[in-house]
Amino acid sequence: MVMMIKKIMVLITVSSLLLVTSPIGISGNYDEGSSYVFNSINSKIIVGQTNETRGIGYKTYFIARISGHVSRVNLNDHSLLGYADDLKIKPLGRKAIYIGNDRKGSNCFYSPKFFGTFKDGFISGIVYSLMVGDWYYKPKYYDELVDWYKSLESVYPDYIEVFKANELYNTGKVPGDGSKEYNLYYVRITNESLGLHKPEVLFLGSPHGTEIVGTIGLYWFTDWLMRMAFTDEPCRDYSKEWLRWLVDNREIYIEVSHNPWGFDRQLYEDKNGVNLVMEADHNGPGEGIPEIWATVNGRTLREFINNHQIRVGCEFHEGTRTLFYPWSSGLQNITCVSPVDNISHIRCPPDFYFFDVSGHRLCDYIHDYDWVPRWHPYVQGFAYRYGWENISSGEMRRIGPLADRGNRLINDQTKIGHMRDWAYGSDVVQNPSQDPYVNDEEFGNYPGSGIFWESPEMATLGGGPLEFYGKYVKYSIPIYLFGHFFFGNDTIKRYGVEVREFVLHQTDLAQPYVRWQPGTINNNSIVESGNEILFRWQVNGSLVVDHTYIQCGTDSDPINNPQYTTSDYDEHNGDYWGGTGWEDADNGSTEGVTYTETIMINAPGDYYFVAKAQVDQIYANVIGSEIYGENSFLRIIKERTNDSYCEVIEGTDGTEEIFGQTWWYSPIIHVEVH
């Protein structure tokens, strides 16, 4: 056989730039009792302002009249921002957006940005949202949100399952007001016709009831994914084939809300005052929590994780627009320097490099998430609150261990018992260095631990504890309030899209894979001898491609019995990043690396081709080995860097197995040459 090979590596855009629409600010002075008329698409909006004093404090009301329906939003001037009455609007004929409720909590509001004065920004937020047609709306109660998921399940029964995890694990019900009790609903997204036992990822609706961006955004991600993957609706930003591939090759689990009572009441903690992120068995429980696993919420999560092999997980928050990973307390003080920006961090976990590099890429992908100018008002507010030390001359770093925040937070013992540390580091059989912090003698070991757990704070402020208002953020009030009005929609990029981008990036990372790209010859094609055959592929589910090339031959198993190999693409061997389809991720787009080979075969016969790749080998090296030991805590790292790694459990869905492998393969392509 005579084979001629041409080697090319090109860059292609795998996700087009998102449409950017500039908000229209309504500037000017608004007099008491006056009305203002603005024209929008299919709507005539009358916005007015009235002022009155009720009880203690001065209150400002903005009135919006849409299609004859009058609603009122009540803002308490400069003391408790966001105390609201019901506001229901129907922009562009879509379903009603619910913004706010009759309980305290500013996190009901969304706005593209702050324009002009306090009241100008609020009015422009309402008017702009109506004009552009935002329709990622907010359910009024937890039960309504659950019903939304059940409605999706009824439309897409082959891909969505909604179930009561507390009943599955017999952990009881979450107490509510009076006789009301809550079930903890979890959602599974996967192509059930292909079976289970795929790489599993887990995303929790926020443990803090006042923080709704992730909780609501996860529903709209699910709705969007089903429509984009399985209907003829156009998907401008992603390949429908890739979205279907994710559903076929991942199990995506969502906990609808980790705090349903707090979600309904718009309160931070649960009914009994428990901060639900601080009850876990890793140096826990946190301050004021009576015991480890004090709640049904926590015990259900514990059982779910111990009966699965979750590779990637998170709990969503709001408050600082940051990305946090272990450690959350200051117990293990290992210092390390980021290979991306050379910034030094303290309280670092053994897998610091993987957390750090993936965090940088993720934050670039979701709207330049990782940096904020030092002069930004909310940086000043939180620097004041926490005594941040890591503020450079120009900007502040906001990716890192939660404990890497400055002396005040490092010594804050409310950060012990964090679910993030438990999900990552509580398997004391695999990681005996953590035995002093884990009460396995009472609760047993946690084989489900070892999860790559990065937690985003997805907004500027979540209407959390009242200490967030007042002096700690006295310079930040406009940013916090007016960054928080609407979720956007499929194409209007606000928090709904950012949650989507977070989930897609993390789900992709759960396991390496090699996929053929458009332009590659189809499987079972027939070609004439002497003609060129084009192969194009990408490597994903990873941070760096150490090696990739094609193996081929006349044997139908080119993986194990290749006769020929092409040249090795090893430009990034030993690097921390590079060579993947996520290259140069930035604000919802990427410039992914696509590898190309052109092969000419002159001898007739049947030929079989496979692309292979080795990835992320540098991350087998951990920091602080004298304390943590020599091995990674992360199952996703052990799976891709250790051929002898084996993990088997008897879980909820039967036997779950992970076997390590250092090479990953594309589907085999058969070509018949005449």
What is shown here, in short?
The protein has 674 residues and is an alpha+beta fold.
Walk me through this protein's architecture:
It is a single chain. By secondary structure, this protein is of the alpha+beta class. The protein has 2 domains: 3-15 and 510-673, Immunoglobulins (Immunoglobulin-like), CATH 2.60.40.10; 157-462 and 488-507, Aminopeptidase, CATH 3.40.630.10. 22% of the residues lie in helices and 24% in strands. It has a 6-stranded mixed sheet, with helices on both faces. Strands 24, 26, 27, 29, 32 and 33 form a 6-stranded mixed sheet that branches. The chain has a 4-stranded antiparallel sheet with strand order 1-28-25-23, with no helix packed on it. Helix 4 packs across helix 5. The chain is globular, with a radius of gyration of 26 Å.
> Can you tell me the overall shape?
globular
Residue-averaged pLDDT, rounded? Answer: 75
Strand arrangement across the biggest beta sheet: 8-11-13-12-14-21
How many structurally independent domains? 2
Portion of residues in helices? 10-25%
Largest beta-sheet details:
6 strands, mixed
Strand percent estimate: 15-25%
Name of the CATH architecture of the largest domain: 3-Layer(aba) Sandwich
State the low-pLDDT regions, or none: 1-132, 370-397, 405-414, 460-485
CATH class assignment of the largest domain: Alpha Beta
N-C termini distance: 13 Å
Q: What is the total tally of β strands? A: 33
Class of secondary structure makeup: alpha+beta
